[in-house]
Amino acid sequence: MPLRIVLLGAGVSGLTTALLLSKSESYSVTVVAKHMPGDYDIEYASPWAGANFQPMSSALNNRWERRTWPELSRLAASVPEAGIHFQKSRVYHRRKDFDAADAPFGPLFNLNPWFRDLFPDYRELAQYELPEGMHSACEYTSVCINTAVYLPWLVGQCSKQGVVLKRAVISHIEELKTMHHSQHHVDIIINASGLLACRLGGVMDCSVVPVRGQIVIVRNEAETMINTSGTDDGATEICYLMSRAVGGGTVLGGTYDKGNWDPNPDPKTAGRIMRRCLEICPDLANGQGVEGLSVVRHGVGLRPSREGGLRVEADTSAFSDGTLLIHNYGHGGWGYNGSYGCAERVVELVDSFRTGLCVSPRALSNISLWEISPE
After folding, report:
1. Contact 335, 13 (CB under 8 A)
2. Helices 339-355/12-22 angle, 10° precision
């Protein structure tokens, strides 16, 4: 009899976790979510993401991204219907940002990054290749994801593996105990609720906060993904651009505004975003300035950040009836980057529970986060 699992959340973290679990006949998975791929809502972060693979973790905490990169690159190389393609990436370091504290995506801009050995074509740019005002830069081939294609592709893969998806609005984690599609008791609940973990009864994680990101999507295509270490337009504004696969347009960003729930794009901010992107990539509009950009839409997404970082662990205090609760949320702006690595960790915890290495949720509390990792 397979263990019955109910997973809350149909963002990239939830769907990837459901997909990896569904590959084992030992598990029967139901995904319950308020929002599904195809929806655009301020509470639902995944459709608004760029999305690309730009490492943002520290050297000591890179497992999630290091484990995700092989799968995303495999999909880009051999599964075109997933909506992922390879694109050259450049990361620029401004001189004036060297001493900036708590910069968005900080580890991405380290001068000697751990990910230099992750990409076979990683190289440092020569001085003559640098735009004015840049101290240094690196270049490598990464991937960019068309979220409007990739998220439905994940749904299709889950469905093919027998995962059942249900729409529902959940106010308390206890409600999930009766929501498996078999209508029988649930053995394991997985919480991949993202930003809504701060409002979910039984979790109410007050360390989860939104980080508002405003973007502009244009029809113009860029040959290279670009990230810069800072801007002169204020602490909440950043600069990046990337072209999505299979006609998804080019995403221009952006902002990094902690604690801001405002779902409405600001026209003045949009103007600054477009100006900054054209300064770093003037060829984007063929030298015509902002008027040369063909805008598809403006958007705002809320990155589901968590003070203290990611929570991927068993929660032994949630239930007293033997039901296991596992959390997988708090990814901030790197949910796609770490999607397969974090899902793999959830599968490890579930496998341990099933095989008897951990015979109860209480026993899980005695196991280190890394103790059963295959590293």
Report:
1. yes
2. 40
Burial call 215-226: b when 16+ CB within 10 Å, e when fewer:
bbbbebebeebb
Helix (H) or strand (E) run with residue 140 in it: strand 134-145
Strands 3-8 and 188-191 come out as: parallel
Q: Is the peptide bond before 82 cis (omega within 30 degrees of 0)?
A: no
Nearest Cα residue to 188 out of 2, 3, 1: 3
Locate the DSSP E strands across 37-126: 84-94, 123-124
Q: What is the mean pLDDT of each run of 10 residues along the chain (375 residues)?
A: 96 98 97 97 95 93 96 98 98 84 80 94 96 93 98 98 98 97 96 97 97 98 96 95 97 97 98 97 93 97 96 88 94 96 97 70 40 31
Q: Which of 203, 213, 265 lies closest to 239, judged by CA?
A: 213
Helix/strand/coil percentages in the chain, nearest 5: 30, 30, 40
State how far the Cα of 296 lies from the Cα of 308, in Å rounded to an integer: 36
Q: What is the pLDDT of residue 359?
A: 43
76 contacts 86 by C-beta, under 8 angstroms: yes
**What does DSSP say about strands 324-329 and 311-315: parallel, antiparallel, or unpaired?**
antiparallel
Task: Check residue 108 and give its pLDDT.
Answer: 93
Structure tokens at 368: 């280190």
The pLDDT assigned to 101 comes to 55
Distances in Å between the Cα of 281 and the Cα atoms of 156, 221, 236, 255 are: 36, 11, 21, 18
Residue 158 CA neighbour count, 13 Å, CB half: 29
> What is the SS3 assignment for 374?
coil
Partners of residue 200 on adjacent β-strands: none
Delineate the domains of the chain, giving CATH numbers in brackets: 3-47+148-207+306-355 (3.40.50.720), 87-142+209-305 (3.30.9.10)
SS3 2: coil
Residue 99 pLDDT: 67
Tell me if 12 sits within 8 A of 304, measured CB to CB: no
Rounded Cα distance between 239 and 229, Å, is 8
**What's the one-letter identity of residue 38?**
G
